[in-house]
Amino acid sequence: TKTARHTDHRIEARLLFAFKFLTGSLGCIGWFIVILSGIFTICLFPITIWFCLKIVQEYERAVIFRLGRITDRKAKGPGIFFVLPCTDSFVKVDLRTVSFDIPPQEILTKDSVTVCVDGVVYFRVSDPIASVANVSNADFSTRLLAQTTLRNVLGTKNLAELLSDREGIAHSMQSSLDEATDDWGIKVERVEIKDVKLPVQLQRAMAAEAEAAREARAKVIAAEGEMNASRALKEASLVIAESPSALQLRYLQTLNTIAAEKNSTIIFPLPMDVMSHFMKK
């Protein structure tokens, strides 16, 4: 009947799905080994329990391999998880932020100046499975890539930009590193330029240039001060010329200042018209 045929088709579909499920990932031999390992674990349960239970810390995750294949698309942990002996193996991945110093790099800038630059990089594992399956050593690979990225980014900058725009250079390096390590399951959180060492000859040349600029600026300021002082003296002379008694008051004020300093010599200024009168006689 139609009902019986429909039931037979459903049973066949379920059997076909179960067969594909069993043979799709591990294959028939693989599942046979897994089942055999499970039976062995159950039979020797009091002993195998110590080999089956594993613990990872709060900041760790475990990537489990069963007969060389990753069992789940999500890492296990934190806490206790179960593995089968003989068929399962796992790799612990640390999720904490790691920092490392970029060794000093000899870099030729855009304006052909050789400088020595070092820095520091902070990164962490964002995808434990990708960091294990997609790269052999995520930590070492990130360190090498950071050195290369530092050379490539600073090679496009001139010396003035390198000394004044460290924040922009660090942001550019972080973006490049984060994009390159995304397939490795690595998240670059921060990049900082620590020190820029210039050649001794270049340091002396820059110091001489800065000293000359300061001296020129000091001369300009002194000239402006003399000009302002001369204008003030001119205005003062015009005021004194309008009132002859102002000169006498100024003279008495000057004598008072000299007497306060306990000087033994006092100079009396005389008007030029008086001196000219005696010179004629």
Automatic annotation (TrEMBL):
Q: What is its main location?
A: membrane
Q: Which InterPro entries match?
A: Band-7_stomatin-like, Band_7, Band_7/SPFH_dom_sf, Band_7/stomatin-like_CS, Stomatin_HflK_fam
Domain of life, source organism: Eukaryota
Query: Does the record carry Nucleus as a key word?
Result: no
Record's GO cellular component, any one? plasma membrane
Mind telling me which residue stretches traverse the membrane in this protein? 21-51
Query: Cross-referenced PROSITE patterns, in alphabetical order?
Result: BAND_7 (PS01270)
Keywords noted in UniProt: Membrane, Transmembrane, Transmembrane helix
Q: Which Gene3D superfamilies match?
A: 6.10.250.2090, Band 7 domain
**Span of domain Band:** 51-210
Compartments, as annotated in UniProt = Membrane
Record-linked Pfam families: Band_7
Protein family per UniProt? Belongs to the band 7/mec-2 family.
The protein's name = Stomatin (EPB72)-like 3b
The source organism is Seriola dumerili
